[in-house]
Write a structure and sequence with these properties.
This protein is α/β, with parallel strands linked by helices. The chain has three domains: 16-191, no CATH class; 199-277 and 422-436; 293-409, 3-Layer(aba) Sandwich (Rossmann fold), CATH 3.40.50. Helices cover 38% and strands 16% of the residues. The protein has helices at 16-19, 32-41, 94-102, 123-133, 139-157, 182-197, 215-221, 224-233, 240-246, 251-264, 301-313, 324-334, 350-358, 377-385, 398-409, 430-436; strands at 21-26, 46-51, 58-60, 63-65, 72-78, 81-87, 164-169, 209-212, 267-270, 293-297, 317-321, 338-342, 368-372, 390-393. Strands 1-7-2-5-6 form a five-stranded antiparallel beta sheet. It has a five-stranded parallel beta sheet with strand order 11-10-12-13-14, with helices on both faces. The longest helix is centred in the middle third of the chain and has 19 residues, at 139-157. It is globular.
């Protein structure tokens, strides 16, 4: 069984005749709902990529940086129905681990190797199939998880009004566990979005984290079961969306439960302060305790020397390769933890190198950051479609380079890998959540 994604069997080129782009444009001209309707009416098979606009550079660790993965999403289709959907950030598997908590299986990812079935833009889907094949999940549980993943992804996508999109016609993501009808799903989500807007300004985002500020008042007004749920997870680190995943509920129902108490000031909602995924620190793909090894592939000797100087000063193990033809064999020998790869190189460009590396299971999870003087939407999509993890525009400074490494490898060679927090607190509250899910308390 092999997991494949649209247009992967041949070299990726964003040319209509070569990869079958059916639609592309701006969300200011056509909204996501209309795009989904067109895909459904045309019974299209392929992949939708959406990138939201970011107003200016993103600030990470006080460094100005343009991130490829700032806001982007993928939706996969088969004959006008949805197979799977994810945000770019979901490739780190935190979302899947959140869903696995409900089934008491959030630790099983540590017991399986990187799945042999994989996709450039859907590693989470590959891991889910690995769990099915290893009998950690039943097919019914897998379908429930995929349905919830699609639902929360579309909830975010349907709220977008600015951005760019490309729909690429091609082979379906395979194998398929389920397909979802677009019309009924979108209708349900649009209704939920209207309900969500009524919570504004007290509740603004599913990514806000609840914190109890008045236990006495809250315990006296909230049902015993719901108070137990909120007390367990309202730690200022787990978002409302994560809590809903842990309990196999939906975030709208959770928001309805919390709303009167947020309005009364007994529960406060905060955003994660450090930008890291909450509810755990480590991914399933195991990170090594040794000094991270970085490989830089660039035919420009000045760039190679600059990268080498910056990273060696920070204690990284760094190797530079200026000959793209020799790059592949050397990368397989070096086995780096992160690869920096120039796009515009003679004989073999960065897109080709990235695509070839992604075909190997050895580098399926390795972060690959493209280096380029280009900064257009099409260039970013080309990088994404061959499996690039991120995108760094030349010229860049030491701060920008080190921030990219911090995002994907941690704070630096001197810091040991962070371990995920122990879990298992949900046992006492899951059944009560299911009983309480239809009964929302009156306002205090």
């Amino acid at each position: 069984m092999r997991l494949v994604s649209a247009g992967r069997a041949k070299k990726q080129n964003l040319v209509k005749d070569s990869i079958g782009i059916c639609m592309q444009g701006q969300l200011s001209e056509i909204d996501i709902r209309s795009i989904l309707q067109l895909i459904e009416l045309g019974q299209r098979t392929g992949e939708l990529f959406v990138e939201a606009y970011v107003s200016g550079p993103v600030s990470v660790s006080d460094c100005s940086l343009r991130l490829l993965s700032s806001q982007s999403w993928f939706v996969f289709f088969l004959n006008g129905k949805i197979i799977y959907a994810a945000a770019d950030k979901d490739s780190n598997l935190f979302r899947l681990r959140d869903y696995m908590r409900y089934y008491k299986k959030d630790d099983v990812g540590d017991l399986i190797e990187a799945p042999s079935i994989s996709s450039i833009n859907a590693p989470e889907y590959g891991y889910l199939w690995a769990m099915l094949e290893n009998h950690y999940l039943t097919p019914a549980q897998g379908r429930t998880i995929i349905g919830n993943m699609v639902h929360e992804t579309l909830f975010d996508l349907l709220s977008l009004h600015q951005g760019s999109f490309i729909f690429e016609v091609g082979p379906a993501l395979a194998p398929q566990l389920t397909t979802l009808e677009i019309r009924s799903l979108v209708t349900k989500i649009m209704h939920q979005m209207q309900e969500w807007m009524q919570f504004n300004p007290h509740i603004q985002s599913p990514n806000q984290c609840p914190v109890i500020t008045n236990h006495t008042q809250l315990s006296s007004k909230m049902s015993k079961n719901n108070y137990k749920i909120i007390r367990t997870w309202a730690d200022g680190k787990s978002s409302m969306r994560q809590i809903a995943r842990y309990l196999n509920g939906d975030v709208l129902t959770l928001a309805k439960v919390l709303y009167p108490y947020v309005k009364a000031g007994w529960v406060q909602l905060v955003y994660p302060s450090d930008g890291e995924p909450t509810g755990g620190k480590a991914e399933w793909p195991h990170q090594s305790a040794r000094i991270p090894r970085i490989v830089c592939i660039d035919d420009g000797l000045a760039i190679c020397k600059a990268v080498e100087d910056i990273l060696q000063q920070q204690g990284y193990d760094v190797a530079t390769i200026s000959d793209p033809i020799k790059a592949l064999s050397l990368v397989f020998q070096l086995k780096p933890d992160l690869i920096l790869c120039d796009i515009a190189m003679p004989e073999l460009d960065g897109y080709e190198i990235c695509a070839m590396l992604r075909r190997s299971t050895l580098f399926r999870q390795t972060p690959i950051v493209m280096l380029t003087g280009l900064d257009g939407f099409i260039d970013r999509v080309k990088a994404r479609m061959v499996g690039a993890t991120d995108y760094l525009t030349k010229p860049f400074g030491a701060g920008e380079l080190l921030t990219i490494l911090e995002i994907y490898l941690g704070s630096g060679p001197t810091e040991a890998p962070k371990l995920s927090a122990s879990v298992g607190q949900s046992d006492a509250v899951e059944s009560s959540w299911k009983r309480e899910i239809g009964s929302i308390e009156a306002a205090p």
